[in-house]
Amino acid sequence: MENACITFLGGGNMAASLIGGLIADGLPADRMTVSDPSAERREWLSARFGVAVHEDNRQAVAGADVVVLAVKPQVMRGLLAEVRDRICASNPLVVSIAAGLRTEALLRWLGCRPPLVRCMPNTPALVQSGVTALYAGEDVDEARRSLAESILRAVGITLWVEDEALLDAVTALSGSGPAYCFLLMEAMQAAGEVLGLAPEQARLLTLQTVFGAAKMALESEEGPEVLRARVTSPGGTTERALAVFEEGGFRTLVQRAIEAAAERSRELADELGGV
Questions:
Q1: pTM for the whole thing?
Q2: Tens-digit pLDDT profile for residues 138-181
Q3: Of 15, 58, 139, 222, which sees the most CB atoms within 10 A?
Q4: Domains of the chain and any CATH numbers
């Protein structure tokens, strides 16, 4: 990857996180270019990372080996109309991190078939702790798959799905998942305050507990069900609390919520990718 020239179309938070992660991984800043319509954002990106910046998208993609599509889904069609002749002529690897836009729609708007990898990162990528699912069609060779994976691995772990439809499940589980965790944290902190803890005490106890539990689960070879059982003493406080969760239909509620998110992901893909 050290010889690849990477262009980011869109210089928002996710693009900035990827740039920072790639530089930390050893990719020279002069191998990256970013386009963004905001002069203020371009100035910040240049000062923060030392990358080349452009207002003109067509100028930005010139000479790129990889083009990362990092704009909002709603403006993607217009963006691709600007640059499609250059992308079709040079055939770079195209990496899309735009949620809800299927491969078929992106290729239709380009009017050609460059190697394209669709990715679904989540917001913890902003602190290099994300997880990204990637999908590539059969026409993307192993070298291009590896290159795309190397880029997204700069902000966390990666995994591949072989069926693009599974990205809707990924969106529902990990894409939206941080919000579920934040909601649980809100509820835990509020409960602690009701029991008499000061807000900052309840906040710190909540955050460190969630962080520690996630770290234990990541570092354990056993599943969360085993870890849960291990800290649930018969007749103890944890067993009492978990019984309330189960009586309230906690598992069913989580399942319904994630299924609803997946359904909405499919709906948005249909809406955004229309002719």
A1: 0.91
A2: 889 999 999 999 999 999 999 999 999 999 999 999 999 999 99
A3: 15
A4: 6-162 (3.40.50.720), 175-269 (1.10.3730.10)
